[in-house]
Amino acid sequence: MEFPSSTFLKSSSPSSINGQIIDSLCESNGVSKLKIPEVKFTKLFINGQFVDSVSGKTFGTRDPRTGDVVAEVAEGDKEDVDIAVKAAREAFDHGKWPRMSGFDRGRVILKFADLIEQHGEEIAMLESINSGKLVHLTKESDIQFATNCLRYFAGAADKIHGETLKCTGEFQAYTLKEPVGVVGHIIPWNFPTVLFAAKAAPTLATGCTMIFKPAEQSPLSILYLAYLAKEAGIPDGVINVITGYGPTAGAAISSHMDVDAVSFTGSTEVGKLVMGAAAASNLKTVSLELGGKCPLVIFNDVDINMAVQTAWQAVFFNKGEVCIAGSRIYVQEGIYDEFLKKVTDNVKDWVVGDPFDPQVHQGPQVDKEQFDKVLRYIESGKREGATLLTGGKAIGEKGYYIEPTIFTDVKEDMLIAQDEIFGPVMSIMKFKTIEEAIEKANNTKYGLAAGILTNDLNTANRVSRSIRAGGIWVNCYMITESGIPFGGYKMSGFGMDSGLQALEKYLKVKSVITPIYNSPWL
Ligand code: ADP
């Protein structure tokens, strides 16, 4: 998930720059004028302290603009996870956080949100040097989502309650909603701050304690957020951060006997491992937000310019590194040719370059592995017979920049139509009828989200109900808010991030039954 905020469609598209690859990228290849913000926090955050890993090992975290190491970060593994879980356990079993009133917890969470807002620029810069995200967009979109999310769940913290139930006979019952305990959060690199907030906010509201395992590509902003959490007054042990690799630190969390729940966002492949580890250990509660290959279905009756802009942003926003990217574009035959022409024209206004430059629309892919993977998919598209309309190549000698790439004549069984590429690659397909559109949209193992562009209410309603996915956008795309539930169908996972439903992931329901004597109202 990886979700952008609702501001993204408002962000103005293309300036008048026509060179696509602006100077900053050329400079980044010469590495002369790169901005590198100060990196203050590089150690594990356990029980309110920044500490070295037990092994003393570190790993280099890299700037995707150049591929160079920007900081050495502590490499946590099983031993460090054990220590962090102990701290979180102690904070849950004996600490004040779960025992405070929801109202008081809410006040601390609000302070945390204020601090994130105040430090938005530094956080955005750290995200940029770790994952190539646009600084200006991260500031106005991701930081805003994160603070809104914390404020939304701060307001929910004192509204968590069970219900009273009538029983047959001389009994009454009520339910309690209790915090599940110690929660493990394993998150990816494409929206680190957004996902931190989406997971931390409801977890904090319920009174649980937690361990975060950020992606190895993007630990810096999460460590900074941990520091701000302490500044806000969140007690020691409530939020712990173990930086390190998935098969070591991540697996130690999902298989830990003393972790009560794990909330994972990442690939379907790793999601299965997390679920397997939870099953093989203590049957901890699992929630998974996994991959997507989302369809955007465009009908003949829409404004073509709106359709092109929506499709463009659906695919190329955040360089395509979005699980809800609308990477399968289905266009009805009546507007197909015009759509191809206009979408190709759009390329000239799209600027790829240094994500610190406010005029840039697309930064580098997160790392060499993703960069190579995207280029391999582009090659597979060509090999399997799709037509390359535009793009298809890497840009520059240094860093992980890829041209916005568009394929037409894509067949349903091609890899580029089936696999989650996680890069700036659009696959366009034609359809004739609404039935065909529904069948094709559902022709995927994923079910995260879908978009429908039409002016016909009946078409919108029918297609919305026929697509097996957790989120549907009609005449818009990627609009998300803290109050709107977000989660998948099929192999995109289960459990909701966002919306009041997110609280349920971190709560257990207990029923209490008592006799009731001599009541005239039985
Ligand atoms: P992506 O494909 O987006 O990089 P991954 O699913 O590989 O996503 O990674 C998402 C998160 O899961 C990262 O924090 C990563 O370190 C972690 N991870 C990777 N492998 C495992 C594993 N075996 N167990 C637990 N976490 C893992």
From TrEMBL:
<comment type="subunit">
    <text>Homotetramer.</text>
</comment>
<dbReference type="GO" id="GO:0004030">
    <property type="term" value="F:aldehyde dehydrogenase [NAD(P)+] activity"/>
</dbReference>
<dbReference type="InterPro" id="IPR016161">
    <property type="entry name" value="Ald_DH/histidinol_DH"/>
</dbReference>
<feature type="domain" description="Aldehyde dehydrogenase">
    <location>
        <begin position="50"/>
        <end position="512"/>
    </location>
</feature>
<dbReference type="InterPro" id="IPR016163">
    <property type="entry name" value="Ald_DH_C"/>
</dbReference>
<dbReference type="InterPro" id="IPR016162">
    <property type="entry name" value="Ald_DH_N"/>
</dbReference>
<protein>
    <recommendedName>
        <fullName>Aldehyde dehydrogenase domain-containing protein</fullName>
    </recommendedName>
</protein>
<keyword id="KW-0560">Oxidoreductase</keyword>
<dbReference type="InterPro" id="IPR016160">
    <property type="entry name" value="Ald_DH_CS_CYS"/>
</dbReference>
<comment type="similarity">
    <text>Belongs to the aldehyde dehydrogenase family.</text>
</comment>
<dbReference type="Pfam" id="PF00171">
    <property type="entry name" value="Aldedh"/>
</dbReference>
<dbReference type="InterPro" id="IPR015590">
    <property type="entry name" value="Aldehyde_DH_dom"/>
</dbReference>
<keyword id="KW-0520">NAD</keyword>
